[in-house]
Specification:
It holds the Pfam family Glyco_hydro_1. Helix content is 38%, strand content 14%. It is an alpha/beta fold and 480 residues long. The longest helix is centred in the middle third of the chain and has 25 residues, at 208-232.
Length: 480
């Protein structure tokens, strides 16, 4: 237990985070179209699909299961779930809107009213319980039609489709949503372009030019969404969202220190620099030259990106990463779509993710020192195997310890001078894992009775962490 009491801001945004494709289900209901998550099979093999070339974006029910199709059925149970969030005392709930509920194929000119009405009901239910929604516009759920017929974010045309989608939801929900984010974990496209950029690199293809051209299109699209948000909802805040993992050098060897710096700049700062500072960072000039990357930048793109930067940085933090120039013979560490060498000073989760609360304090200081804009920890949590006791209770003390240590790190960062808006624990209710498609990798304060194979009643029950987090929020972080 912490021996120190932390002072969080009076208006600190405590809550939880989810994504539409991981909780909603109802994948064929309400005139919804197919998105990328709908065609990704469940199981640990999903991670290989995400990283290997040649995925065909087809559903094969004879060979695979597709847990995202039903997920935890938030589509029908949202009132019950939101009531539980309210019981915990959530100030905010981070959610995403499924692009294919609004534009089923992505390239229509008229939105789907059934999809718009569904989110009206969800947002109204949140406000009924005095919970502010934090909405991610695009969270790993690009319409499959845009993937197959346009090449995903390779295509400049997709910028136009995204702008239409963003403007549609900004206008529709302008009186219901104050906090927005553009692309979830935008930098993840460097490692798994399928989910982040909407395409799979082909085996014979050079990966660099299509990847960074796709990023450029997303930067333009993000700037257009920021511009629209500021025009349509002048008092709203719209942020970017990155996956952030501090990169440690394996040792004091200058070669390893430089290697860690290069890895950190590319992964942690490249996308954030463009969206927060409004321009490509200087270090990318050399990177583009060394990898023969020539971007097709249209007239006005750079001016648009410079003029319409984000208001805050939302980021996910699960782990740090340790890098060594020569990895041969070193034990590898598993991680959130990325891996480095094993850090001997850190323990790991059931899924091999290294646990590093101090890394969150480091991340917050690094980001605030670099950008001087408000920060928002919009994902942080522990994926673990929970055991339901005979009396139905779930004693997830390991999750409480993990979250407590990370909240302590946030408290320390606030004392360091960091401007931190809020904290939304990832997977506040059990959901389908994005990287592996598993239900057994549980994050929630709320247990959902569903197994990896699809069996289960979908009934909800409160874990021990539910009551702990309820008290954390009630005391504004004073009692951890």
């Amino acid at each position: 237990m912490p021996t120190k009491t932390y002072q969080f801001p009076e208006n600190f945004l405590w809550g939880g985070a989810t994504a539409a494709n991981q909780i909603e289900g109802g994948f064929h209901e309400g005139n919804k179209g197919l998105n990328i998550a709908d065609v990704l099979p469940g199981g640990k093999g999903r991670l290989n699909i995400l990283k290997e070339p040649g995925f065909n974006f087809e559903v094969n029910t004879e060979k695979y299961t597709y847990p995202n199709h039903e997920a935890i059925d938030f589509y029908h149970r949202y009132k019950e779930d939101i009531a539980l969030f309210a019981e915990m005392g959530f100030k905010v709930f981070r959610m995403s809107i499924a692009w294919t509920r609004i534009f089923p194929n992505g390239d229509e000119t008229v939105p789907n009213e059934e999809g718009l009405a569904f989110y009206d009901r969800v947002l109204d239910e949140l406000h009924k319980h005095n919970i502010e929604p934090v909405v991610t516009i695009s969270h790993y759920e690009m319409p499959v039609n845009l993937v197959k017929n346009y090449g995903g974010w390779r295509s400049r045309e997709v910028v136009t489709f995204f702008e239409r989608y963003a403007k549609t939801i900004l206008e529709r929900y302008q009186n219901k949503v104050k906090y927005w984010m553009t692309f979830n974990e935008i930098n993840s496209g460097l490692i798994m372009p399928i989910m982040g950029l909407g395409f799979s690199i082909q085996k014979e293809e050079d990966k660099y030019t299509p990847t960074f051209q796709a990023f450029h299109h997303q930067f333009v699209a993000s700037s257009l969404a920021v511009k629209a948000c500021h025009e349509i909802i002048p008092d709203a805040q719209i942020g970017c969202m990155i996956l952030y993992a501090p990169v440690y050098p394996y040792d004091a060897n200058p070669e390893n220190v430089m290697h860690a710096l290069e890895e950190e700049r590319l992964f942690n700062y490249y996308c954030a620099d463009v969206q927060v500072r409004g321009e490509y960072p200087a270090f990318m000039t050399r990177y583009f030259k060394e990898h023969n990357i020539e971007l097709d930048i249209k007239e006005g793109d750079l001016e648009l990106m410079k003029e319409h930067t984000v208001d805050y940085i939302g980021f996910s933090y699960y782990m740090s990463r340790t890098e060594k120039m020569q990895k041969a013979g070193e034990e590898q560490a598993d991680g959130n779509i990325m891996s480095g060498v094993r850090n001997p000073f850190l323990k790991a989760s059931d899924w091999g993710w290294e646990i590093d609360p101090t890394g969150l304090r480091i991340a917050l200081n690094q980001l605030y020192d670099r950008y001087r804009v408000p920060l928002f920890v919009v994902e942080n949590g522990l994926g673990a195997k929970d055991v339901v006791e005979e009396d139905g209770s779930i004693h997830d003390d390991y999750r409480i310890e993990y979250l407590r240590d990370h909240i302590v790190a946030m408290g320390e960062a606030i004392e360091d001078g960091v401007d931190l808006m809020g904290y939304t624990a990832w997977g506040c209710i059990d959901l389908v894992s994005a990287s592996t498609g598993e239900m057994s990798k549980r994050y929630g304060f709320i247990y959902v009775d569903k197994e990896d194979g699809g069996s289960g009643t979908l009934e909800r029950s409160k874990k021990k962490s539910f009551f702990w987090y309820q008290n954390v929020i009630n005391t504004n972080g004073k009692e951890l």
